[in-house]
Amino acid sequence: MTPEILLDYRPLWAVLISLVAAILILMTGEKNRNLRETWTILAAFGKAAIVFSMLPLVLGGKVIESAPIHVAYGIILQLRVDTAGMLFAGLASFLWIVTSFYSIGYMRGHNEKHQTGYFASFAVCLAATMGIAFSANLLTFFVFYELLTIATYPLVIHKRDAEAIRSGRKYLAYTLISGQLFLVAIIWTYIAAGTGDFQAGGFLTLEHGSTRMLQVMFFFMSIGAAVKAGVMPFHGWLPDAMVAPTPVSALLHAVAVVKAGAFGILRVVGYVFGPELLGEIGAADVLAWFAAFTIIVSSLIAMNQDNLKRRLAFSTVGQLSYVVLGVSLMTPLGLLGGMFHIIAHAFMKITLFFCAGAILVTAHKENISEMHGIGKKMPITIGAFTIASLGIAGVPFIVGFISKWNIALGALQGGQWLYIVVLIGSAMLASTYLLPVAYMGFFKKSDKFTKYGEARKDMLIPIVITATISVVLGILPNFGAHFYDLATMSAQSIVHSIELIGGGW
Amino acid sequence: MREQLPALIVVVPLAAALLAPLVAYFSKTMVKLLTIMALLVANISAVTVLIQVLNEGTLNYHFGGWAPPWGIEYVYDPLSSIMAVLIAFVALVVAIYAGPFLEKDAKFKTGIFYSLFLLLSVGLLGMMVTGDVFNLYVFLEISSLAGYALIAAGGNRATVAAFRYLLIGTIGASFYLLGVGYLYGATGTLNMADLAEILVPLMDSSAVIVAIVMIVIGLGIKMAMFPLHGWQPDAYTYSHPAATALIAGVMAKVPAYAALRFFFFVMVASAGPVHKALQVMGLLAAAGIIIGSIMAIAQKDFRRMLAYSSVAQIGYIIVGLAIGNSLALIGAVLHIINHAIMKSCLFLVAGGVKWRIGEHLVEKYKELNKKLPLTMGVLIIAALSMVGLPPTAGFFSKWYLVLGAIEEGMWFYVVIIILSSLLNAIYFFRILENVYMKKSDQEVKDINSDGKFELPLQMLVPIIVLGLGILILGIFNEPLVSQIIQFAIPGGGQ
């Protein structure tokens, strides 16, 4: 079942377009804000157009590759679009469009400083995300992974105050240290296997080293990816990074950066080691334990956070571990569910963060305890918040249900019923920390918010769009971009089987 | 003409060095042009020779037609040719950059500066290309003497630093000379190729062992290898700002190159004493990497921080030699090149800041991104490269070193290199934090200003050229490695 390979430069353009935009943004600067924002919008649409133009080919079972660039002796940088990469790139490039409009509304509505640097860094982040999605081998992946770290740093320290500096340092400490461990593991892989080329089902085998050595390699790589994915105990940077402007939290700290970590786990488990080898050396179980632990503990912590963004951050920590858990179960449906949760969580969480940002800009409230009765002032925003909260809690007909259902089935497939308990527990916890916000917003009386006063249009419309999509994908998971098919095809390719053994949606 | 090119690389700058004070008597502009022209000729010759060497193989040039082992021979193999290009290039860039610093100086002083600058370049170029161990000593002394004078030209505190370096440096050079003496006593020849043949059966003799020890100490002092680096931070910090980039960027790399030449080309690297010497040097270098980085974190003066960082970075190169397989040697050679470019670039930036606001303290770098946006942009690139993040040049030398270390199973060095990257990150991000995030309490005053650009073009262009160089070396290091360095290491080409 070797897929047909097409030589095409579209993946490269998808990466470069936002780098070019970043340069144009820097050159335009504060002098002409409308022109500067035009670059962002153009690049966002352009990138999405390029990415989605490749979708039919990928769905048709083809793989798109760009010509390799020899970047170091014997080692190449190469971009390749497969189903998993398409899934991630399609998601990120679509949400960038939505976030761009929202960003403009937020940054102007909030009178933020350093807007030029903000939009430029954002564009670079998206280039790095595309690179991560389309990397054909470990080195390419690492190059873009580190680029993402560096490009996100200016966004974390956006406020330039002492707290932002501290968070920025923490962020760098976590990501750089884990990046170095990742690097060691990558070099080790190149030495052991002579290649780093991602291959569905993995390319490492027991012949490449002793069990202990492979376990250590897996451990290093997992840490490298798990730090960005916020798996406990490596999550410390994520809540602190919430000092960044809200659109950053929304797209980067709920979608691009943390998902890059989760995607990294997927690549490591499914495309470097492969389920078979991991089953033999028994390393993925440890990862699954960490993920299960994170799911429960982060939910408990989230309940105690009064700052809305911090609560959402801990929720993100927990939800990402669903992806990690699904992938590390290594059963076909677990993989499918984990991958689809990348999509599901992205739409729901970006809605929640957008709402938090809209409340901040419109009503200047950050803490949940101050939001009593805000539903009167901002009914649409809180309505969207409610939908997304229900989705996170796993209510059917919202997109979160589909992925959780599959992860649960995946756990059964592997005979790991304990994880189902974790999933159910976490769903209940999620409803206890998110739904009260909606409840208080709508049903608690308050004299502060008596008049209708919704957020700016350029913030409100993105909220409505993402909330709507969360519902639509919950009913028709293949709507639009065929994300469900992409996840299915990736899972099939990893387990080398068309049959995913019944179940599914 | 073409067959004389190998000599021109050294002879033209030397002639220009002698002419410089005389020309300066007539015009300051002329002497600057003379210097740049001479280095340009050296550059063109070096590149031409490099191309020739790559096409036709090693090139031997016999001075005055005297055949070795009696005459002095220049040997251009891929290694020495690429190094000559590197030195000539950095020297040219720094010479262009030097102008604004000398504007207020008298004619005669300017002439002497350029003369010394050219002599330093001659010494460094000569050490690269000579095939004679005693001739190497002569060039070492030429470059050192010019270096002492250029450091002393930096002002009051520089005099002490220069004198200290003069004492220690002379001891180092003497050790080297003694080592050469022992080798001469044991073999009766000074020519490297000749030595390489005669030494094979003599490697375990006590004379050779003594020679190795002497040469290690001598070159170790000159390259500021830990713990022989005591002279270096002061010398780099206080030297003449127009010449610091050359002194700090490449002067210490040349002895490192000489060590590579000695241990892997003249002697038998796998033989007992050399192997042991390399192991000791590797451990010292590992200690130097860590201690140098920690000392760098503790510094408040940007130049001093860079100086300690150099102690650490020289360690990378030596670690590459100590690991000793071909991947690690590629890493070491690549790091000589990369680090020369990175460190020169950083010192050019430091000089630019000094020129504009007259400060060197890290805390005075606050909000400089507004005054010097392009320069600070280059600083980011150079800093990322020093930390070793892809796709900058610094990542790839580290990549090869780690690759070599893992292949050899030397995990200790892997840990050291990784740890050092993280320590580098601490002090370079501190600089960037100051530049981009901290607010300065009072208005920073310009002591010089160009009006039109953030720095005069003759300073700004070199800074940007080296900054781009870091990126280009990073992205296009594959051709560099597979076309040149691969053939430059011992047993290369396989």
Structure description:
The complex is a heterodimer of chains A (505) and B (494). Chain A is mostly helical. Chain A has helices at residues 10-28, 33-53, 55-59, 83-109, 115-134, 138-156, 162-193, 211-229, 237-240, 246-281, 284-303, 308-329, 332-363, 374-377, 379-393, 399-413, 417-443, 457-475, 483-495; strands at 4-7, 62-65, 69-72, 75-77, 80-81. Chain A has a 3-stranded mixed beta sheet. Chain A has a two-stranded antiparallel sheet with strand order 3-4. In chain A, helix 12 (308-329) packs antiparallel against helix 17 and helix 15 (379-393) runs parallel beside helix 18 (457-475). In chain A, 62% of the residues are buried. The mean pLDDT of chain A is 83. Chain B has 494 residues and is mainly alpha-helical. Chain B folds into 2 domains: 1-131; 132-487, no CATH class. Chain B contains 20 helices and 2 strands. The radius of gyration of chain B is 21 Å and the shape is globular. The chains are: A mainly alpha (505), B mainly alpha (494). Chains A and B meet through strand 3, helix 6 and helix 7 of A and helix 17, helix 18 and helix 20 of B.
